[in-house]
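User: Quick sanity check before I run a bigger batch. Here is a single chain. Can you write out its predicted 3D structure?
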Amino acid sequence: MAATSTYRDEQSADRALSSAGRPLSRVLLVDDDRGQLESVAALIRDEGFEVEMCATAHEALERAKSREFGIAVVDQRLPDLSGVELLKRLRSRSPAMRVIIHTGYGEFDSAKEAVNLGAFAYVEKLADPRELLNQIHRAARDRVLLYVEELEQIVEQRTASLRASEEQLRQSQKMEALGQLAGGVAHDMNNLLTAIFGYIEIAKTYFPASHPALESLEHVEQASRQASGVMRSLLTFSRKTAAEKKRVDMARVVRDCTKLLRRMVSASIDLSCDAPTDESIWVFADEMQMQQVILNLAINARDALPDGGRLEISVRAEPHGAKTGDVVCLLVVRDNGRGIAPAVAERVFEPFFTTKPAGKGTGLGLSIVHGIVSDHGGAIRIDSQPERGTTVTVRLPLAGEERGSQPESETDAPRGRNELILVAEDHPYVRQIMCSALRSLGYRVIEASDGEELLAQVQQRGDEVDLLVADLDLPRRSGFECIREVRTTRPRLPIIATTGATGLDISRAGLENTLLLRKPFKPHELAHRIHATLRAHEKRVGQNERDSQDRTGG
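Assistant: Done. Predicted structure follows.
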């Protein structure tokens, strides 16, 4: 079997030699005896090799700089350097070169030294010339086999690189498909969430402050915010939208999430929350995405505790870094569950990687968490040991102090002054919520369910309309078209555009001087926007009138 293998290797080498190119079959022949040089060169050429002749070692070294040789046949005794020294220099320049020492003096020590230094063979000049030719053929086959191995390594490396690129392309295509899917359903999802938020806000008004139903409504509202956060996180993760950041109290967010989690974990899990109630921990963040981070990490911890255990969530401000006064928000989610192996821990943030059984996880949760934390200028770390539990630490930069701004209140929405508001919205539940809320606040409201109806109402009511609220994705005529057309006849009409779509830059859409309100929103948020827009419009109109009077001398 070994003989057959060798025979096949030699056949492969012969075929490769014929197709590998001239450098492998090029022989550098070095001998200071001119007659010997030419006679040996003729023998080698007759075997099909290309031969270049040199009379000195330095000439051979110069030739090797400019051309590649597969084999060198070197006389042991040269006028400038010994054959062994030339062997060392040739091999240092071209380690793959096969060097045969050709000598008229059969010195054992020289032969031993040459072999130790990497000589392929040591052949006496007085021997049968066929011995030298046989060694040259062996050297050629050996060199070609090495060449083939090198090619195979290159092919293997390039194949691995191509596979990595192919996998990267597949991941990119998955992310693009995910983004298209999320973007496609975002409009409908945000409409539904707007309706849910609206009905929750209305339902709260029917119960006294101590009624237990209010707690259930709070849980429904938190769950709805989480649904909105999931959608926004998917869109951000697939680069379809940007996070909407503002100052957020992480202590409050952790407490709110813990309340929601208590209904999501079994009684065998001891869930604890350590978040200060007497101070705020402010970060500049997208609140829904922060909730998504906490819930994703906590749910992963819960799933690692099938037989029960401890799940701890804590948040605090902690000094960090070398500079005095450097403080960060430190969020920690810890469990004493199954833990994960180091090799797995290195991959948990990769998209679509999951350790859960088929159908139990998408492999996107921790990828989304990592993306959110990175987008907020933070860092995340996982420390885990099998059967001992996992600790996930998230560091986020603190936000600076901000004074004078108050959150918009649900119970203290500003009232209208009998202004006429045109609401154009095709989703019936959303339109009903918006109109009902505005009427309860003292506004007169007219409705439109599509673009054509919007334009008809504007034409019919004329200057009587004080403000337009228009969805940008109306049927028949889009909100974009309608707003542009209304601007031609009512250029100063205050307009608020609403949308459930993502990634929209309203200034680039040609809707300058139009306020954009993204869905999902709550009725009180709409009321605050309308009130602020109307008051700003009144100031502009009053200022214009005063400027006009000043110009006319009145």
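Residues 245 and 285 are 4 Å apart (CA to CA).

User: Great, the batch can go ahead then.
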